[in-house]
Amino acid sequence: MANNRLVYGAIILFAANLINRVLGFIYQYLIMHFIGSEAYGLFHMVFPVYMTALVLSTAGIPLAISKMVAEKISLNRYREAQRIFRTAFATLFVSGLVVSVVLFSNTSHIVSQFFADQRVFIVFQICIPAIFVVSISSAFRGYFQGLQNMMPSALSQIIEQITRVTIGFSLSLKLLSQGAEWAAAGLAVGMLCGEITGLLSIGLHYLTQKRRKEQRNVVSQEPAFSILGKLFTLSLPITGSRLVSTGLSSLEALIIPRQLQVAGYTSASATSLFGQLSGTAFTLLTFPSVFTFALATSLVPAISEAMVRQDISLARSRCSDAVRYTMLLGIPSVLIINYFAQPLTHLFNSADVALVLKILSVGGIFSYLIQTTTGILQGMGKTHVPLINALISGSIRVPLLFYLTGIPIWGLKGSAWSYVIGYVCFAVLNLAAIRREINFKFEFKAFLLQPLLAGLGMLAVIHLFSTLVPDKIIVRLLAIALGFLAYIIILILNGGVKAEDLKKIPYLKRFIR
Fold first, then answer.
1. CB 35 within 8 Å of CB 190
2. pLDDT greater than 90 at residue 190
3. CA angle, 220 then 224 then 227, to 5°
4. What is the C-alpha to C-alpha distance for residues 504 and 87, in angstroms, rounded to an integer?
5. Is the Cβ–Cβ distance between 121 and 111 less than 8 Å?
6. Distance of alpha carbon 146 from alpha carbon 63, whole angstroms
7. Residues 413-423: pLDDT tens digits?
8. Does residue 320 have a pLDDT over 90?
9. Are 391 and 412 contacting, i.e. CB atoms less than 8 angstroms apart?
């Protein structure tokens, strides 16, 4: 029953993330075809500064809320869980407000110093209040994730995305006649309105939840300063990890185009190739991460609950299930990405990176494992470990990226191999850390051999169907559907999926004895 909650929470978040990802693809298609790349470029230009400010304002506190609330709920201390939430909420309210006011007061200076195109001024100003709104929303999301109730977060994310797409596109289209900067401002307004409706949705759910549970407990209250100390102890390494990730991404965005020019490409060609790498190859590679992100989010409270009860057996079981589910979904995903690399990149007008996508797919499964294992370690309270591992893998990836990308015969292929090596290093270090903590064992047969054999069978079905029927998009989709059906059948036959696994999936267990 305990593991069912983990699966149920992951499925809810997966469904919400999938809906949001599909809406996001539709939104991007509408923008590129009706608004134009110039307006989108201006809107997207503010995001490195915006995301850095968001990381600083939230400081990893939402994840810390999730873990600490889960620990209190597992001990039936509902009033203490409420106190943790209120303390964290006040902290995020103040930090979000301070960061927003500071940025708004210094908008002119920031725009002149950090942005090449001064037309982003109004876009940046509109985005700033969203930092305050997101900071408050993140407190609610951390609280509900700690309760292992993923529905409020999922619903608020869907409402937020629908609002963003509806208002953002319609307003941007209306303002387009006044210039690209005003169209970009319309997109920014859509984002801000989306965040506000998401906050209203999850805030309303909290008020009804609070009335139902506020009388259930009971225990002596922990001082606010003690709660703050624990929140920051857990959250600061998470903030460090996110700042490292943001910093590495910014550094790589500088290295790759520059080294491609060293390899002999013109400035325009290097910029175009980098755009295809980030906009197409990584978009396609990370699409399956909608599941691993959901699983990682669900894992933090689930592992925390097991650890606070000192139930190492339950923690080990949940870790094993999480890694196995990641492999079961990740392996067929990377095989399909590899097989269809050419038509997929062609669909996005990025045929130049087809081989690059094939190379990246080799490391795809490790990138998915990074998300899952990071969630496990954070649930254990070892929030500093992913930060250390990110620094180690980054110290290997960045020099390789600089060296290989600049070699003419390697170029962007060298960049791809650098990422693959970095992914492998990070994932292996995380798995080794989990093994040290709870004696976790990587089961070669269940985690790798069985899904890989099923995946090869899936590819055989896809290839056979694709060669017998005319090559069209609908045919490819049908081939993938038949291949995935073959994958599931082979997994059931070779023992990769058992009846116990299916019983953990909501609504299926009633049909399985």
1. no
2. yes
3. 90
4. 35
5. yes
6. 9
7. 999 999 999 99
8. no
9. no
* Tokens of residue 203, six digits: 């805030």
Q: Is the distance from CB of 372 to CB of 299 less than 8 angstroms? A: yes
| Full DSSP string of 40-69 | HHHHHHTHHHHHHHHHHHHTTHHHHHHHHH
Helix 180-213 and helix 151-175: axis angle, to 10°?
160
- What does the alpha-carbon distance between residue 165 and residue 28 come to, in Å, rounded to a whole number? 9
Cα radius of gyration (the chain): 23
Alpha helices by DSSP H, 263-383: 267-276, 282-286, 289-308, 312-339, 341-347, 354-379
**Res. 104: pLDDT tops 50:** yes
Residue 217 in this model has a pLDDT that exceeds 90:
no
Query: Which among 85, 88, 96 has a CA at the least distance from the CA of 143?
Result: 85
Are 13 and 154 in contact by the 8 Å Cβ rule? The answer is yes
DSSP string, 377-415: HHHTT-THHHHHHHHHHHHHHHHHHHHHHTSTTTTHHHH
From 233-242, 381-390, 448-457, the region with the lowest mean pLDDT: 233-242
Place of tokens 């810390």: 64
pLDDT in the model for residue 513: 52
Alpha carbon distance 82, 121 (integer Å): 40
The yes-or-no verdict on residue 508 having pLDDT over 90 is: no
> Which band of pLDDT confidence, cut at 50, 70 and 90, is reported for residue 359?
very high
Number of CB atoms found within 10 A of residue 183's CB? 26
- Tell me what the mean pLDDT of segment 134-140 comes to: 93
Query: Which residue is it, tokens 């998470």?
Result: 238
Torsion sign (Cα): 92, 93, 95, 99: positive
Q: pLDDT value at position 128?
A: 93
